[in-house]
Design a protein that fits this description.
The protein has about 100 residues and is mainly alpha-helical. The chain has a single domain, classed as Rossmann fold, CATH 3.40.50.2000. Helix content is about 60%, strand content about 10%. It is built from 6 helices and 3 strands; from the N terminus they run E-H-H-E-H-E-H-H-H. The chain has a 3-stranded parallel β-sheet with strand order 1-2-3, sandwiched between helices. The mean pLDDT is about 90.
């Protein structure tokens, strides 16, 4: 299974585009997403998912993942690890608490 997440290139999407990709990444699902907006700051192409720019890249990437279980597994595990290391509940909670404690002083 892979997440196929095409996005349109407009202002609304550029500000919202990354959350759904991150949700799939957190579930070990290799993600293919349009190379638009914030996606390029979360997904490192071919490490934590795939960023695609045109129809040919969509087709090639879908076929590549479909035909390669090891690649799907590796991308899925790597993406989950990245999300856990950078965006987990515990990590974000610690950051918020640190900010709150610094304000109280």
């Amino acid at each position: 299974m892979s997440c196929i997440y095409p996005l349109s290139d407009d202002i609304w999407i550029k500000g919202k585009s990354v959350l759904k990709a991150m949700q799939y990444m957190a579930l070990d699902v290799p993600t293919i997403v349009s190379n638009i907006g914030q996606t390029k700051f979360i997904i490192r192409h071919r490490n934590y998912g795939f960023l695609v720019n045109n129809q040919n890249e969509w087709i090639n990437t879908i076929l590549k993942l479909n035909n390669n279980l090891l690649l799907r597994t590796t991308i899925g595990i790597g993406s989950r690890k990245k999300i856990k290391e950078l965006y987990s509940f515990d990590l974000i909670a610690k950051k918020y608490l640190s900010v709150i404690k610094s304000i109280k002083k």
